[in-house]
Amino acid sequence: MHGALKVVAAPVRVRANDYSAGQRVTRAFLPYALAAVFACAPVAALAEWQVVEEVRPYSISGKSGAELYESIGARGPQVGIGRVIAHTTFKLTWTRKYEAQGTSCVITTNRPKLVITYTLPKPSAALPPAVGGSWGSFIAGVQAHERVHGDTIKEMVKEIEVMSIGLTVADDPDCKKIRIELTRRLGEISAKQRQRGRDFDKVEMGDGGNIQQLILKLVNGP
Questions:
Q1: pLDDT along the chain (222 residues), means of 10
Q2: DSSP string, the chain
């Protein structure tokens, strides 16, 4: 929604610790974090309210959990100044109609189209059975984490839709003031969504958190 709402949330990261191949990890660490990156696209005319969720894999290699994780660190998507395990992006476009009603302006149509993309690691070759089991548990946990970010995005879009349909600004026959008011409200809603994502990541990626445990199990496994 260029001109109405543009959101880019900074990735959440923690300081990297060194890891040497062949050495078991016995203390908490998060060399590569997950990130949720949110971006809005310009308004486009759309036929209906749609939500599309897609997975975009990136290739990694390795025959052990430690090697796979090392490959994530080398090949993970670049976000900001560092690499991440996975991230969630979205493109949001709207069909919006402003109508002058007397001296007021009303939003009579505000129909969204949402595309959410999850970027996730994927081994480039078949894994040994034991490693495959460890990897399956790891990637399932990472996917579940990213899906929570996807859910907060969908909830944000629903909130915007409910807020904006029927939004009326008095003394605005040219429908100019209403755009300023809509931008203000969109900013508040998007800021709340970004904060929810940061709060979730803080718990998930904190000391002893779910993501940390997933990493430790993968690296310390077969």
A1: 25 27 33 42 46 95 95 91 92 93 94 95 95 96 96 94 94 96 95 94 91 94 80
A2: -TTT----PPPP--------TT----S---SSEEEE----PPP---SS-EEEEEEEEEEE--SSHHHHHHHHHHHSPEETTEEEEEEEEEEEEEEEEEEEETTEEEEEEEEEEEEEEEEEEEESSPPPHHHHHHHHHHHHHHHHHHHHHHHHHHHHHHHHHHHHTT-EESS-TTS-HHHHHHHHHHHHHHHHHHHHHHHHHHHHTSTT-HHHHHHHHHHH--
